[in-house]
Specification:
39% of the residues lie in helices and 18% in strands. With 353 residues, it is of the alpha+beta class. The chain has three domains: 68 residues, no CATH class; 151 residues, no CATH class; 89 residues, no CATH class. Strands 2-1-3 form a three-stranded mixed sheet. The chain has a three-stranded antiparallel sheet with strand order 5-4-14. Strand 4 and strand 5 form a beta hairpin. The longest helix is centred in the first third of the chain and has 21 residues. It is elongated. The N terminus is likely disordered.
């Protein structure tokens, strides 16, 4: 009988008491549910008291999961003047880009389109990985323009500062997380100031392959902006000196109508090839050497003066900013504008990529 009682007690100890001694209390992971509104770059906080953790709703938990999965919440920005890399929240960065790239007095839907384009371009550059430890730089000639809030406000009239910055914030916040995709990938979202009424394909500017979503499109209304037309003039001698900086052997007979002549145009009407004496140059190279605002130009010769009459401003690929504003004035929204300039694309949330 004593043996039976002993066996029974041993059984109870093994089944009930030992497991309870070995078990460890579970620690839940919580987050400050206002952290995203306070600072997008803050990481999730752990180990808050159990009573608070238990009050976190399923919706809050879903938001936490989304933030953990979003690898684009912060970016590393290279400041080219100081060569310093700053980590900054993506959406805050986009505000600085929009304020640096597009006039704040443009229509709100044009600014929203610019915010989506800038966010998309940023993701493309991050995946491109051409800046070492940084994701993107603040040089508009390399990536896209960026200006600090303080510097931006200082450039505006004091009476306009608050309203203009609030407008910038609105266009970014109302498009938060939206990016342009083709085949579920962020597109190379090129943009420029003024297309002169017609955009260009990438191959005509940089060579290589074209992107299917970047085609020649026409936009009415751009002629009403100051960026639409410009002129650059050179004397015969000054033009020769300028060209010799790049081609020291160049020779031009200014008495011959055949020595300065446009030989070929692109499908969008820009200059593809131009003859300068014993050299044939591309329209893009001519633009860069002579400081023209675009490769869409004509030549007028008059009494020893060569006048380049230019249409548009920028490379002409992708979204025209003045074109976007013109479309917004017609009642088009940001999505309409984007799908006008980028063909067969979709606008998706960044977390879906």
């Amino acid at each position: 009988m004593k043996k039976i009682i002993c066996y029974f007690l041993l059984f109870v100890i093994i089944i009930f008491i030992v497991p309870s001694l070995l078990a460890k209390p579970t620690k839940a992971v919580g987050t400050d549910i206002n952290a995203e509104n306070k600072n997008e770059s803050k990481s999730l906080q752990e180990g808050q008291d159990n009573s608070q953790e238990q009050r976190i709703s399923n919706e809050d938990n879903k938001e936490v999961t989304n933030n953990q999965n979003n690898k684009y919440s912060n970016i590393k920005l290279l400041h080219t003047k100081t060569n310093e890399v700053e980590e900054i929240g993506l959406e805050e960065y986009i505000k600085n880009v929009v304020s640096g790239e597009m006039p704040a007095d443009f229509e709100i839907e044009a600014l929203k389109a610019q915010a989506i384009v800038a966010r998309t371009y940023t993701l493309y550059k991050i995946n491109d990985k051409k800046h070492g430890n940084a994701d993107i730089c603040d040089d508009s000639k390399c990536c896209q323009a960026w200006i600090s809030k303080e510097d931006r406000l200082a450039k505006w009239e004091e009476s306009e500062r608050e309203n203009r910055w609030r407008k910038i914030e609105q266009c970014v916040e109302e498009t938060k997380g939206k990016v342009i995709t083709y085949n579920n990938q962020p597109i190379n979202a090129f943009f420029h100031s003024n297309s002169g009424g017609t955009t260009e394909i990438p191959k005509e500017v940089w060579g290589g392959d074209n992107f299917p979503y970047l085609q020649v499109v026409q936009t009415a209304g751009e002629e009403g902006y100051t960026q639409y037309s410009s002129e650059v003039s050179y004397t015969n001698n000054d033009l020769l000196i300028k060209l010799k900086e790049k081609y020291s052997d160049i020779q031009i007979d200014f008495n011959s109508n055949e020595d300065i002549k446009i030989l070929e145009y692109t499908g969008s009407g820009r200059v593809r090839t131009i003859k300068f004496g014993n050299h044939n140059l591309s329209g893009v190279e001519t633009r860069n050497i002579l400081g023209l605002k675009s490769a869409n130009f004509e030549i007028i010769k008059n009494a020893g003066i060569i006048n380049f009459k230019v249409k548009g401003y920028g490379h002409g690929v992708g979204m025209s900013q003045t074109g976007a504003d013109s479309l917004a004035k017609e009642g088009k929204n940001a999505e309409d504008i984007i799908k006008h300039f980028y063909k067969d694309v979709e606008i998706k949330d960044i977390n879906s990529l």
